[in-house]
Amino acid sequence: VLVTVADKLRARVAKVYAQPGESARQLVAAAVETLFTMVSDYVDASGFSGFPVVQENADIPEEEKRDRSRLAIKLVISGLIAAIICILIVLFGSRLVNAVKEYSGKNPATSQTQTIESAFLPGSNESSSESETTQDSAYDPEYLLSLLEQAPSYAASEEEFITETSASTVASAQNTTKNKNTTKYTGDTIKPSTTKQTAVVTTKAASTAAPTTTTTTALIIPPQYAGTFSFSVKGYGHGVGMSQEGAKSYARQGWTYDKILLHYYTPGVTLLDDTNLPERVTYGGNSIELIEYLARTVAQEIGTGSPIEALKAQTVAAYTFAKSYGFNVSGGQHAYSTTFNLDLNSNVMKAVNEVAGKYLVHNGSPITAFYFASAAGQTVSSASVWGGTVPYLQGGVSSPESVSQSSKSYSAAEIKAFVDEYNSNPKFSSKKITLQDNPAEWIKIIDADSAGYINTIRVGDQVMRGYSFRQDLFKLRIRSHCFAFTYTSA
């Protein structure tokens, strides 16, 4: 995707491309992020930086000079509209194609896309449920390291699982499939009915011949699969460690970065100055100057507009993580901006330069500084999410931000497709789910903490952690594992 910001004198173009295995949705999200960063840089610099200054005697009408500030506003609005349209196209088309595949009796294609929520701890991402069988005794650093090594690569910041498909297939399915159910957060989703439907799917010919068209008819949905599961979700992320929105709220209340950090990582954690500050960090195989590495990580993880004390807290967390890995970090372990303008006068650069080299320790070792986007009133224990026991991640720490609310609805047919996909994964061969005949019996919450985060939940005949329900079964389709749900029969 080529992303362009232009005024009446110049244009700046960035090329955004997908890594192998990444989906169209991830590419769109990355392009949108790049666009907003470029616009922000343009506004901050009152034009394009890095170009020769236009001479005063240049033949530029006064009206054009006045237009620059208005152009910046138009760029922001245009970019936002473009982003919304792109995301809706990907969401709408992918859901339609998935539904057509399910109704025709085919197993949905297994996507290789790993969609990871924004604001993860670098390296934590969302660990697989295989770790559920690990130790539940004392804290073991080796266990945490093995947990991080299992983490999937960081992808887009959006929380939606997308099955990749061709544009022609999406367009055909959009034009011929009816019965849509629109929700506030996800755009159009398919709600099956007991009536027959006809879907025309265009496939690509093996040679240069013109595309062929196949028709699938008489897509009859069993009545028991026409019901709907509705999820009401609080918070955003796994809930372990520091809430980024909470850090911002505390910073606005006048808290300093060290007070914020020691509030979320407790007890037994202290803040130290590194006496052996490295000059460079290896990230994704590339050697990067320490300050640049921290600035680009912080800008992408918590946002450049965050209060400066929150930016400092994020910087310490990022440095602590890099130190725990010997300052050699894989490119898939946290978000990183390649377009952030390293302006020394920006709050990000000021924060990084002030606290670079400070890190958090427990029992003499750098901690695993998990963080996430937004809490549901309080944090959750790492033990309930991944197993094991980490003394400074016991959960129950208050977080002051307004609790974000989201909702998602899925038909019983869609839930069954999620289960079929889960069962097809060899990783879960010993934990395959058998569903009851009645969808109303499929899901039951067994235990939750005081904030509502699900500790254990039953799906069919299998009991799993709430986090595994969201990560492994739902592929992050819901924003957190703090939720309630209802089932409505057709």
Q: Can you put this structure into words, describing what you see?
A:
The protein has 490 residues and is of the alpha+beta class. Helices cover 33% and strands 18% of the residues. It is built from twelve helices and 20 strands. The protein has helices at residues 24-44, 62-103, 141-149, 167-176, 244-252, 257-264, 290-302, 308-324, 347-355, 382-386, 412-424, 466-473; strands at residues 2-6, 11-15, 180-183, 187-190, 199-203, 212-216, 228-234, 242-243, 269-273, 280-283, 286-289, 328-329, 358-362, 365-366, 371-372, 405-411, 443-448, 454-459, 462-465, 483-488. The strands form eight sheets. It has a three-stranded antiparallel sheet with strand order 16-7-20. Helix 1 runs antiparallel to helix 2 (62-103), helix 2 (62-103) crosses helix 4 and helix 5 (244-252) packs antiparallel against helix 8 (308-324). The radius of gyration is 24 Å and the shape is globular.
Tell me the number of strands.
Answer: 20
Q: What is the mean pLDDT?
A: 76
Estimate the helix proportion, in percent: 25-40%
Unreliably modeled segments:
51-58, 100-219
Return Rg in Å. Answer: 24 Å
C-alpha geometry: globular
Cα(first) to Cα(last) distance is 42 Å
The helix count comes to: 12
Strand order of the largest sheet: 16-7-20
Coarse structural class: alpha+beta
Question: How can the largest sheet be summarized?
Answer: 3 strands, antiparallel
Strand content: 15-25%
